[in-house]
Amino acid sequence: MTTTIRRGETRYPARIVCLTEETTEALYLLGEEDRIVGISGFTVRPPRARKEKPKVSAFTSAKIDRILALEPDLVLGFSDLQADIAAQLIRHGVELHVFNQRSVDEILRMIRMLGGMVGCEARANALAAELEGGLDVLRATASAFPRRPRVYFEEWDEPQISGIRWVSELVGIAGGDDIFPELAACGLGKDRIVADSLEVVRRAPDIMFGSWCGKKFSARNVAARTGWHDVPAVRDCALHEVKSSIILQPGPAALTDGVRELHRVIAAWVASRG
Predict the structure, then answer these.
(1) Do both 18 and 138 map to the same domain?
(2) Running DSSP on this structure, what letter comes out for residue 212?
(3) Together in a domain, 172 and 217
(4) Exposure check for the chain: N or C terminus, fewer CB within 10 A?
(5) Taking all residues of the chain, what is their mean pLDDT, rounded to a whole number?
(6) Exposed (0-12), middle (13-18) or buried (19+): which is 234, by Cβ within 10 Å?
(7) For 183, how many CA atoms within 13 A lie in the half-sphere containing its CB?
(8) CA–CA gap between residue 72 and residue 93 (Å, rounded)
(9) What domain count does the chain have?
């Protein structure tokens, strides 16, 4: 017989709805997945979450009635893009926390905060330390590179958007130099639009990573852009896709599989140049 835990019946939140993937993945890594009663439909990590948990939201929309029916004692969201969802749930008396982590340090802080929320601070601190250790290893390896490639990361193609902060930082950790470092200070996508496509040409990236937020990256379309034929990354066929699920969610995935993929490509580029 299964006992339904209702709001307020335990010391820590026991019925959590995660509106984005990174908190779902973090709770699974912390061994606290039984607390999750609802997830985002975009969740792919860990794969078992899609089989085990009801999908109750997209990214900017949610099934409010379904969330309320789950009787959550905590809903976890991310950024201003989910402000409308948050406002609706707050009006229904739901306790809610919206994270806004934008940097590597803030991702690690989010994990530690999440651990505090569910009463597993020690495990959260250990997970954050493990993730930091992995980044330190990559950083040390990259420090020995004789040359650092110029890197252009594109998170959307129409319009071209670049410079998301945690990705910019991970490019640096992986051994490259982001060609639009000034955009990393801009939290909103509309403020990170590369208005002049030829500015990418002028900054001459050696490597391009594309992660078009779930849309299939097309190296052919990139190479066909006006004036881009002389871009080193285009000329040398150094156009690489990074799956959005491992780089565009500001959580454990970006600090593990995401940065490792950046490092793999950058290390291969460095090795090919002796």
Answers:
(1) no
(2) B
(3) yes
(4) N
(5) 95
(6) buried
(7) 22
(8) 10
(9) 2
Quick one: what percent of the chain has pLDDT higher than 90?
91
Last residue of a domain, one of 100, 116, 142: 100
Angstrom CA distances, 273 to 26, 99, 145, stand at 38, 42, 11
- Which ranges constitute the DSSP H helices of the chain? 21-29, 47-52, 64-69, 83-91, 104-118, 121-142, 165-174, 198-203, 219-223, 232-235, 252-253, 259-272
Measured CA to CA, the distance from residue 51 to residue 190 in angstroms comes to 35
The candidate with the shortest Cα–Cα distance to 130, out of 46, 44, 33, 26, is 26
pLDDT value at residue 42: 94
Give domain status of residue 107, yes or no.
Answer: no
- CA 242 to CA 64: how far, in whole Å? 32
- Whichever domain contains 177, its CATH number is 3.40.50.1980
Q: Is the bond preceding residue 205 a cis peptide, omega within 30 degrees?
A: no
By residue count, the chain amounts to 274
Strands 150-157 and 160-162 come out as: antiparallel
Residues 39, 155 share a domain: no
List the beta bridge partners of residue 78. Answer: 99
The pTM of this model reads 0.94
Tokens of 168: 């910019």
Per-residue DSSP letter, 12: S
Return the DSSP state at 58: -
Q: Count of CB atoms within 10 A of residue 215's CB?
A: 12
CA distance 92 to 82: 16
Of the candidates 158, 139, 145, 120, the one whose C-alpha atom is nearest the C-alpha of residue 30 is 120
